[in-house]
Specification:
It is built from nine helices and seven strands, in the order ααββαβαβαβαβαβαα. By secondary structure, it is an alpha/beta fold.
């Protein structure tokens, strides 16, 4: 089977909710201990997401690992839909996980290995990578087909996106996210994460340190003037996810230690 045919099958499978739920159960069961037993996960702000509509919601976040960030979000969304607030608790939410979520990811990342290909079935919206492996920008903006893919998913679902397009802290945001926001006018929920770079390897699969404080903070939905320029909207996003130069200079961060 050639790569194109395989990709087509994957696209069909990940749009089947039962398939996504089964992947959630498998991946969730494997990853729960690393988040809760071997490390300390602190969640705050879930009151901002418990009553959100089921569609046209965009979560924007800083990015520290390829997979652990998103996997943690999915755990939290499932727990909140089962009535939990600011905690995961016992993961009985995996018996019927909330799977009306997609996440934006680089196509190369989701093809890297068997685990990545499996996780892609959880709802990956693959886009062409904006950054090369050495964090040099290789192209600007989103491919029009990538944009259509994201806009189409927003009509019926929640989407998680990382506007910086890289795990390098304080990298500039990409205008593609702001352009999508202007076009679709979604509810935009900023999220700030920390600690994942300490606990996991860059891929976010292998534990490299236990006992680490992991934090996920959901902020109130942004009040966005959709008539503003994409540059203004992007600046608002970057401030909300605490990835501006001011945050870099004034806070205690991992920007000097993290790998590109």
């Amino acid at each position: 089977m050639n790569a194109t045919a395989m990709s087509s099958i994957t696209e069909r499978l990940k749009n089947i909710k039962l398939v996504r739920k089964l992947v959630y159960v498998l991946v969730g069961s494997i990853t729960y201990p690393g988040l809760v037993w071997f490390n300390k996960l602190k969640i705050s702000g879930t009151e901002h997401i418990k009553n959100l509509p089921r569609n046209n919601v965009l979560f924007v976040s800083n990015h520290q690992t390829y997979f652990a960030d998103v996997i943690t979000f999915l755990h939290i969304f499932c727990a909140v839909k089962w009535g939990k607030q600011n905690k995961l608790g016992i993961p009985y939410y995996l018996l019927n996980p909330f799977s009306n979520v997609y996440f934006v990811s680089a196509a190369e990342t989701m093809k890297a290995n068997l685990m990545a290909k499996l996780f892609a079935l959880a709802g990956a919206l693959t886009v062409r990578r904006t950054w090369s492996s050495d964090s040099k920008e290789v192209r600007r903006g989103l491919d029009p087909s990538d944009t259509r893919k994201i806009i189409g998913a927003l009509k019926n679902s929640w989407i998680i996106t990382f506007p910086q397009g890289t795990t390098k802290p304080f990298a500039p945001g990409r205008k593609g996210t702001a352009l999508i926001i202007k076009q679709t006018k979604p509810i935009v929920v900023p999220v700030v994460i920390d600690g994942f770079w300490r606990a996991f390897d860059k891929k976010g699969i292998t534990l490299k340190k236990t006992g680490t404080q992991l934090s996920v903070t959901f902020k109130a939905p942004l009040q966005i003037d959709f008539e503003q320029s994409s540059e203004v909207i992007l600046a608002q996003l970057m401030e909300a996810i605490e990835q501006t130069k001011d945050h870099m200079m004034n806070g205690t961060h991992h920007w000097q230690e993290a790998e590109a």
